[in-house]
Amino acid sequence: MAHYGYRTGIFLGLAIAGIGALMFYPAAAESEEADSMTFGAALRHRHMRLGVLAIFLYVGAEVAIGSFLINYISLPHIGNMTVATAAVYVSLYWGGAMLGRFAGAALLTKANPRTVLGGCAVAASLLLLAGMFSHGYVAVLAVVAIGLFNSVMFPNIFTLGIGGMGVLTGKASSLQIMAIVGGAIVPLLQGVLADRIGVQLSFVLPLLCYAFVAYYGYRGSRLDGVESAAGAARPQFIPH
User: Fold this and answer.
1) CB under 8 Å to 22, separation ≥6 — which residues?
2) Half-sphere exposure of 96 toward its Cβ, with a 13 Å CA cutoff?
3) pLDDT tens digits, 71-128
4) What is the pLDDT of residues 170-226, one digit of tens each?
5) For residue 161, is pLDDT > 60?
6) Among 240, 181, 185, which Cα is nearest to 25's?
7) What does the alpha-carbon distance between residue 240 and residue 63 come to, in Å, rounded to a whole number?
8) How far apart are CA 70 and CA 196, in angstroms?
9) Using H for helix, E for strand and C for coil, what is the string for 88-107?
10) Cα separation, 113 vs 12, whole angstroms
11) 101/98 Cα distance (integer angstroms)
12) Which value, to the nearest 10 degrees, does the dihedral of the CA atoms of residues 205, 210, 216, 218 take?
């Protein structure tokens, strides 16, 4: 199967995620106080381990969807469009992600970050389900709209993951930045699935990724598994 725009989508998605990661890193790195601290020490914290996995899966899902949109929209029972026309919708997907980042800035100053993260991941999951089991423009618009909900996931996961890490904040930040490699791995795995069960059903993989992100938002990001969601600190929103 020819995956149009597949490599381009991976490179574009990784570039966007990488820029966002670098925007977070300087502030986190400045707080590192002990060079003797190891990455293993940071990973002893459950919410940190799960945060690394959440970044890996979120970036992977976002890039995978963008990478397969042209193939998906070009399907006869979905959009039945030419590659050139389908590419316009890919631009809308990434454009929606950028637009949502600015709109999310206002939301994150008032809402609980765990609620926002979990809610956006659930919304993305529902839209993916619509894209997997519907057809025509309903399916097209459902998947393209996921970009809007992707917009606030990175800053929330990142901030929740380094919460309460103290002198290990620098190590925790580095681990989360390294986790954006998911944007190169998850699309490859979806490609394997697409060759076996078709492009439309292969979106089950990013669906599972978003399901984990939702879990992380509502439960997994709590410090030591017991912190009340009401006590979560609100992240400073930084577009990426």
Assistant:
1) 177
2) 19
3) 999 999 999 999 999 999 999 999 888 777 776 666 777 788 899 999 999 999 999 9
4) 889 989 999 999 999 999 999 999 999 999 999 999 999 999 999 999 999 988 644
5) yes
6) 240
7) 14
8) 18
9) HHHHHHHHHHHHHHHHHHHH
10) 27
11) 5
12) -140
Question: Cα(85)–Cα(90) distance, rounded to whole angstroms?
Answer: 9
User: What is d(CA 120, CA 97) in angstroms, rounded to the nearest whole number?
Assistant: 12
Q: Find out whether 131 and 142 touch, Cβ atoms under 8 Å.
A: yes
Tell me how far apart the alpha carbons of residues 233 and 148 are, in angstroms, rounded to a whole number.
Answer: 23
The predicted structure's pLDDT at residue 72:
96
Q: Output the pLDDT for position 35.
A: 53
Query: Alpha-carbon distance 30 to 116, whole Å?
Result: 27
Take residue 153 and report the two structure tokens written for it. Answer: 């996931």
Where do we find the tokens 């795995």? 189
Tell me the mean pLDDT in the region 26-51. Answer: 69
Alpha-carbon distance of 138 to 37, in angstroms, equals 51
Report which residue type is found at 231: G
Domain ranges within the chain, ordered by starting residue: 6-217
Superfamily (CATH) of domain 6-217: MFS general substrate transporter like domains (1.20.1250.20)
